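[recover] target loaded
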């Protein structure tokens, strides 16, 4: 009799847990939907200008995520096969270092002549003639899970984004299942070799850029179609406000232009999972158990690309696109140097180069 009673209790508990997993509800993150058109921030007209890019290193580069150019005009990029490549002024490519890491993302050059690389899995890397070294892998004794983009300030401080403090590079799509933003903005101080928190609760923190006067910093929130401004100096020091909102697509990397404006690479995408999925906790548990299986079901990347030039006032000045993805797809970064734009991409096998100035029509 006792055994029968115990069995009934176990069955009731199992059923109760199953019902909780299946029917427990969480709010749908409305920011996954494309925002309605904004009369205050109209998208630039399509012009197919990105189909005119010059292809640098075609066939040598596997999905070059980001691009950086040092003061001597040497161009750097990192690729999905773990290599750190650089293009010298004479037009020759050099496979500078091989990290064997598949998770190299944002990069920046430093005043000292080094290259800083965000390795989503390892943290911040310093790449120099001496080799590759991890300089930041933890914050508050916790491992950095998703180092994404980085920029150096004039005092040597490195500001970088941690796209998700909960999900790593191999399970980034699961961040879309969360109803609470998990991204952060971090700061690395080379004088003390310490990393600290600047901002938290960001919806997939991505590109990071400093203003021309370095009085504020801009960080992109990819899932929310916007970029935030964090004040570093002045009366608003330590305050955060929206820099640009309701962009025509999801912002990836952002870079300062020579004239003080910013170039933002935009990702065209649409959510694939229907809203009811967010009411099925059981589905979330299943997706977390098999992230690679469900990764292609989370979001669909549209075969097109777009970059916009945004002024220091947060208004779009101009933009260039490839509306069909005929030449450029999935552009993740745009860097201006000596009258040209250079593009990184997680789809193409080359770095794109486009001469400026150009009109957006």
């Amino acid at each position: 009799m006792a055994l029968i009673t115990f069995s009934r209790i176990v069955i009731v508990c199992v059923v109760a847990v199953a019902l909780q997993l299946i029917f427990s509800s969480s709010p749908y993150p409305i920011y996954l939907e494309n925002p309605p058109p904004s009369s205050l921030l109209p998208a630039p007209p399509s012009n197919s200008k990105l189909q005119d890019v010059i292809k640098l290193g075609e066939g040598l580069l596997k999905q070059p995520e980001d691009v950086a150019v040092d003061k001597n005009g040497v161009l750097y990029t990192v690729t999905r096969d773990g290599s750190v490549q650089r293009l010298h002024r004479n037009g020759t490519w050099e496979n500078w270092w091989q990290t064997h890491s598949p998770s190299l993302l944002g990069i920046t050059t430093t005043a000292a002549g080094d290259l800083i690389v965000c390795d989503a899995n390892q943290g911040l890397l310093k790449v120099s003639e001496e080799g590759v070294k991890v300089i930041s892998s933890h914050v508050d004794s916790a491992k950095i899970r998703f180092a994404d983009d980085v920029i150096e300030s004039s005092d040597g401080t490195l500001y970088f984004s941690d796209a998700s403090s909960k999900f790593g590079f191999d399970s980034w799509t699961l961040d879309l299942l969360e109803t609470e933003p998990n991204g952060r903005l971090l700061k690395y101080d080379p004088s003390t070799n310490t990393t600290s928190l600047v901002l938290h609760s960001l919806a997939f923190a991505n590109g990071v850029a400093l203003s021309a006067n370095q009085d504020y910093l801009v960080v992109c929130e990819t899932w929310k179609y916007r970029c935030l401004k964090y004040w570093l100096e002045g009366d608003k020091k330590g305050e955060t406000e929206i820099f640009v909102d309701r962009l025509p697509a999801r912002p990836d990397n952002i870079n300062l232009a020579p004239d003080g404006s910013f170039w933002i690479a935009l990702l065209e995408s649409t959510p694939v999972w229907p809203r009811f999925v967010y009411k099925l906790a059981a589905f979330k548990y299943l997706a977390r158990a098999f992230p690679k299986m469900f990764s292609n079901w989370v979001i669909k990347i549209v075969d097109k690309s777009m970059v916009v030039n945004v002024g220091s006032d947060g208004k779009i000045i101009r933009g260039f696109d490839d509306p069909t993805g005929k030449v450029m797809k999935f552009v993740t970064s745009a860097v201006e140097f000596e009258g040209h734009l250079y593009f990184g991409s997680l789809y193409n096998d080359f770095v794109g180069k486009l001469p400026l100035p150009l009109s957006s029509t």
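[recover] notes: The mean pLDDT is 87.
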